[in-house]
## 1
Amino acid sequence: MREHAIKARENLFKRLEDQSVTVLYSGHAPHRSADQNYDYTPQRNFFYVTNLSEPNMILMLLKGDQDKTLLFIEKNTDFKIKWEGASLTKEEASALSGIDAKSIFYLDDFDKVFNQTMNYARSIMGTPPVTLYLDLYHESVKKKPVSLSQAANIVENYPELNIKSVNAHISYLRMFKTDEEIEEIKQAIAHTKKGLDNVLANIKTRTHEYQLQADFLHAITLDGSEGYAFDTIAACGKNATVLHYTDNKDTLDHNEMILFDLGALHNNYASDISRTYPVGGAYSKRQKEIYQAVLDVNKKSIDFVKPGVTWKELNDYAKDLLAKKAVKLGLIQEEKDIMNVYYHSIGHFMGLDVHDVGLYNQPLEAGMVLTIEPGLYTSEEGIGVRIEDDILVTEDGCVNLSEAIIKEVDDIEKAIKGS
């Protein structure tokens, strides 16, 4: 991924305005309780252009008379080495990121170097920047972007800088996966297959949802995954009609189905798979009818994916198919009522984030990775079915990256019986 990061920086430089400075932060683990922190996860835009997964780093991209890439890292101390473990050295950070070791500094030098950048007479980029790019992702309308707090000193001390968001530029680049990124996603999917195979092997012997969640985590961890790509959904019976059910505490009923929506990480890249299994090993007639309807729409929607198709066209296509199926199944009386039993979209972009960044107002193009996840939900019958695959758009169509994860009724029943 080193070469990928180098190319990502080159592509980003091409999109930035002249006389600009971009500052990206790797982030840190937020405080949890007392002397504990939550697990650290690298800020994804930072990782995308650096291939670095350590906290407390800052990247500066200077585009001007002289383009420069500068990296600031933590300095190792005896205390840090003994209590927390050593951080990357300049040489190690350079090897991973492709940034010249001579352009890597310690965090203590950041303010001084930034001031030199702004020095009109002796700016290290020739002429001082007039634009400051930050990662201005808005978590919600009531919260300021985190980077505004991280860069508070810059914003306060250099009011002459015009602040702009770098998100649109990086989001555009991240829509198109390189061969290296696709391999990482494939590996994340391979981990997920191992996890679901373990679930199928144990489903008849478990008594609670959380046990099957543990079976999944156990297998993907043994397989080398960093863990969950997102909180696992293991929803039995009526729980499967709650779209983001994550309690996973209820007992299992062998007469019901259990819906899994889960994924694994590999080098920060995610998978996102949904499967719906019969807890007792065989689908009832009604369960099979609803399951097969969703499976048919899953496969037809995948076949519909190709360059030039818009997200609206893809969503409308899947929704129309599901509406016709739902009427025949007696779940709704009229097709216009489909949102009563199918209340989400057909999919989303996927990559470094499970719900990855991207532009939904433009047609699909080769290199994009997205999910296809139709579903039908009826709380009256205690049935929720969702079948989700991870799809790569190609020049002449698409490839189902998760094709090896079984989803046919006979294959699933045989797998459970064989366990």
## 2
Amino acid sequence: MNETVVLTPERILEVTEDVLRRYGLAKATVVDVARALDVSHGSVYRHFPSKASLREAVAKRWLERMDAPLRKIAQDTGPAPARLEAWLRTLFAAKRERVCDDPEMFQTYLTLAREACAAVKCHKDGLVEQMSAILSDGVKQRVFDVADTKATARAIFDATSRYHHPAHADEWKDADLPARVDATLALLLRGLKA
């Protein structure tokens, strides 16, 4: 074992993802992570006090990676309708790509996310805040007629759940999905117009 290695939480999380991919969620252990890092499992526990905290950190990291491009769109400037459409399409595409490109890992992350309820709630609240910021810009630009941007953002998030909630993942492979997304977004954007 190489106990002289400088361990960071980020490095541990990277290796944990590899271990999860290799062994699966049910079989992966902290000892497997430590072995892959060539350190003792105690070294891992110094950064993450329990297996549950390590798993929660992996889920949070996954959600943050999904959030990064959305945050960029929300913070951008430009016409709010185009930004809102781009934001929603990016959210839908990110979820769809993850389930279609690596379904086993998607299931692993989904299970981890279910265990990390606080991280998931924080993630969802952050997404609603991002949408609310875009809607607020649209009101300022006089292109959206929205009285309560936060409530409207939450309603849009809920109304589009078919395209981003993991419970609907099996539907994301349907050939007619792009047409349904187009129709939904057109309806939403028309309904928001000032």
